[in-house]
UniProtKB/TrEMBL annotation:
SMART domains: M16C_associated
Record protein name field: Peptidase M16
Organism: Lacinutrix venerupis
Domain Peptidase M16C associated as annotated: residue spans: 408-686
Family stated for the protein in its record: Belongs to the peptidase M16 family.
A Gene Ontology molecular function term of the record: metal ion binding
InterPro entries documented for this protein: Metalloenz_LuxS/M16, MPP/UQCRC_Complex, Pept_M16_N, Peptidase_M16_C, Peptidase_M16C_assoc
Amino acid sequence: MKLLKLCTLFSLSIVCFNCSNNNSKELNVSEKEFKIEYEKFTLDNGLEVILHEDHSDPIVAVATLMHVGSNREKPGRTGFAHFFEHMSFNDSENVPVGANRKMIPEWGGSRNGGTSNDYTVYYEVVPKDAFEKILWIDSDRFGYMINTVTKEALEREKQVVKNEKRQRVDNAAYGYTDEIKRKNLYPETHPYNWTVIGALPDLQAATIDDVKEFYKKYYGASNASLVIAGDINIDETKKLVEKWFGEIPSGPNVESLPPMPVTLDKTKSLYFEDSFAKLPELRMTFPTVEEYNKDKYALEILGQLLSGSKKSPLYQTIVEEQKLAPRVSTYQSSSELAGEFVFRVRANAFVDLDNVKTAINEGLERFENNGVNEKDLNRIKAELETNLYRGISTVLNKAFQLVQDNEFNGDPSYITETAKLTNAVTAEDVMRVYNKYIKNKHYVMTSVVPKGNLDLAVAESKQASVWIEEVKQDVANEEVSQGAEAVYEKTKTKHDRSEPEFGELPLFKSPKVWTDTLENGMAIYGIENNEVPLVQFDITIPGGHLLDPENKSGVANLLSDLMMEGTANKTPADLEEAIGLLGASINTYSSNEDFHITGTCLAKNFDKTIALVKEIILQPRWDVDEFNRLKSALETSLKDRESNPNSIASMAYNKLIYGDNHILSIPSSGTQESISNISIQDLKNYFKNLSPENASFHIAGALNNNEVKSTLSTLNEWNVKAVNIPDFEITNTVSKNKLYFIDFPGAKQSVFQIGKLALSKENEEFNNLNFANEILGGGSSGKLFQTLRIEKGYTYGAYSGISSNKEISPFTVRTSVRANATLKSLEIIKNMISNYANDFTNTEVELTKNKILKGNTRAYESLGAQLGMLRNISKYNLSKTFTEEDQEELINMTLEDYKNIINKYLNEEDMIYVVVGDKKTQFEEVKKLGKTIIELDIYGNKL
């Protein structure tokens, strides 16, 4: 379940206007108001229901928002709203045990929940045939779960939430910053004084009576909003909602909380020595305004003006001139009761945060002197217009927007008003909120520095108080079990609450793909999609990391960054501004096997956006100062990577799997050693490899074949001959069936990567192995997740799979488990893989078919997903209807086929185990697994 600290899941800063005249100081609101069509009604029990029809895909999204978050908790019971969200996903009266987490993925759907300061949301997306089933399971969780709660379920879920906190907070660099900020920004009596996940001692003290009290107080129908969006019939849906949700008790009246903005009577400066951090980080948090306050919109734009472009004052003082950090961010975060304006800088290694603070002050002084540039204001609004459409491009995102605006503002269509309020922000408004909330105002400042580098903290800071869990090796008090089902008298209802039948099966049909070719040899693949007036595009050029010079891994990655730093005719700031004024985004990046130029824009601005792409490709700037800055930023990023146990595990795993002579044994971003010798000439040499000859242009959105081809004809001036991609021999000298241990002192969790090299995406058996993995590690219904999280409470999540590449790729099991469950988790995974073929029966065959076939109905809903489909077609030379052919292949697989593929590729004794954890407590434990253990350093070198 997701932790949502603020309302960022739903918040959309949006604006509709005509930006054809970018020099105009007045922007005209579009004649046609932007809105989401809906129908709203209220059940007798007080539940407000919003319905939205969208027949573009045979799927339905359901979002139930409970108006209760961490702001309703009491001191001593913090984290309870989030914990209750977890409890809600267990059992209910009329649904089989464990079904809530397991059955929905098996229907081809997805489900999750999230908790913020102010709300708890539950949401699902399912194929249309499971629509009534999802109403049954969703309403049963809502209204009929409390009697099924057992002590065993309570204790099991405590362990899961503990693991979530360890993964997100305790085992993560800068993880305690939010706790420090809240304790010092909000008084002890304020509902935002504690974090959403709360304190573990509070969680451990939770009882069944606490759970029941919380449910009865806040989980009544009158304290919620329900949104159903997708391929529905309004009249039929009303009847189904009345049937499944109409008998849920209304619950007591929950009194609304008024806004509770805070002020500070002094600035508070605190420091914290972080055992995991490798870089110093400064944050300054100013108290501001709550969600829906009209000042919020000007504050959001202020955040973009201060740091969101190369011309912004804080970027200039911190990044460009003083070179203290690779980036700076400023942003407004609003919640129901209060808001915050945040300055955040993760500095370069060994930078004194006093210097960062001084640079921030200099940047703010520059902003005060120069004021708001109207062109910058127009650029930001143009970008927000595009974000508006991106933000509601799926049925689930529409459901989120409707449900939040209804529950917190009583108006599902408030998005229209938001657009107007954002568009109406003037330069005077921005300066007014700056003066009102930022200039000369008190704030909370945190200096988080690496352990032993206290001299980097802002001078005269006081030590922050943080509660840190001690994970003990004695796990007796943390072992959990399924336990017996609760004994209770089932709630009587007028309507039969038995599981409904499936509706008519929606058959997945591939979207229509069109193809074409430019004169320079570049192939074009497109899907026309007119749901929103957007297009997303991508140029894929074969090569990527594979073409990096020997001992200089990171060249392609650095080139991708440098290409966006201006053109021969535009400075970096000019190029950024030109893109922004179109409301577009253009990015370049390098992956292991390809180099990409990607973009998103309004369909009406496609011509101008491609003109900029052409300029980027044909007229590079080769700015030496920008190259030096980017190289320095990369060094900082690689240093920061050393604080992430998941990154450490991944780098070591790939190095072992591929061997020292293969380029994929090194990250595409490079290492400190590999980038040290890279010069700008290396980037110029690599640039000559970027050829349209074997490249592919992919586009999905509101343009047809002729419109796209006409615009792209301008790229025929790009003429470069393609180069050969080198073949790398896998000289893998790593011994199989061994465990490699990397010490991460003080780790609250152990990170695992377990697997072996398997096969290429081009191998005819790739799909078969992918299908065979579904039961083992394919999401929350997989055996790994069900056992390690649901049954044992050892982890927050556990998954397995194989990535798609032309190069042979590894099959990998990934998870992070609580430190004192390291050995037991390893034993479970070892036995599960060893017995997987024997345990696979015809039941698993049918379940695999059902999950994948139905899941395909929602797999290609978004423009991004359709773009991914086109990339697969071009890269692997697949047919335009490969998804349907893959389905046919799945249907024809027999039990014997599954067993053969598992035995061929998933032999446990052929695998290696990489474990990143606390050596002091876990090294002797993992020896008991019985495998030869080899110690590595954090760079994957043998000790």
